[in-house]
Amino acid sequence: MFIVKYRKIFFTLSIITIALSFYAMAVKGFNAGIDFKGGSIIEVAYDVRPSVETLTTALNTAGFEGSRIQMAGDNDVMVKTRALSEADRQSLTKALAVSGSQMEEKRFSSIGPTIGAELRTKAWYAIALVILGIVLFIAYAFRHVSEPISSWKYGMITSATLLHDIIVPAGVFVWMGKEVDTLFVVALLSIMGVSVHDTIVVFDRIRENLKLKISNDFMVTVGKSLEQTFARSINTSLTVMLVLGTLYFFGPASTKDFSLILWIGVAIGTYSSVFIASPLLVVFEKWQNRG
What is the reported pTM? Predict the structure, then answer.
């Protein structure tokens, strides 16, 4: 009952975090990766890897200012830069072949700005369609629940919490200056899957307790349902977050940002499922009774 009783505190925390996320997006904007704005990426391996400063100097001298250098593994280096022609690619490769180190090119890929814009549009479509599909599924799954609130309101609340669960991690990423690419979108879709799973578990327990008529007060029913599922939700999320934390600290550099946003998203998703979604049912029920 604690969560439901003090729901206004949790609602306020969510409103503040969402406002801060939108502020970060408006002020700093998304740092789009080459997947969405176009560009080239090359990965090379050295027997003795040069320092970032040495590589930066070599690239700037060759005319590749502003390129992003990322260390990967023990001896690999990834360089992200503008879209390159074949001649530019050869110049870049020569610049990376700094003296004193043997270098091997492992991967090169390039995406034009038109394809990047198309991928960005499809990413938004994918997120919108996933949210719509989840809302329709929940409305169908809870179709026999009509009292005290109708099934479509369960779906609407779920969609609101899903937006909450992707806006906040996205805002954190923007504030940190992290690059937004296709892995970022995959992470957001994964976050929605984890979040909706937790929400459905709690909603299903509420549905069962409504059938059992454990109380005539809907607020009490929701509170009891949260008490019954709280430990499961927290323990499951902590297990996932432990794995993601291990991947972030001990995994390859290419998956660090992916595991980080998933970690943030799982934490936020668990919070919204427990502290936001179910208390919103109580709010809807009270509004309905007043009307």
Answer: 0.80
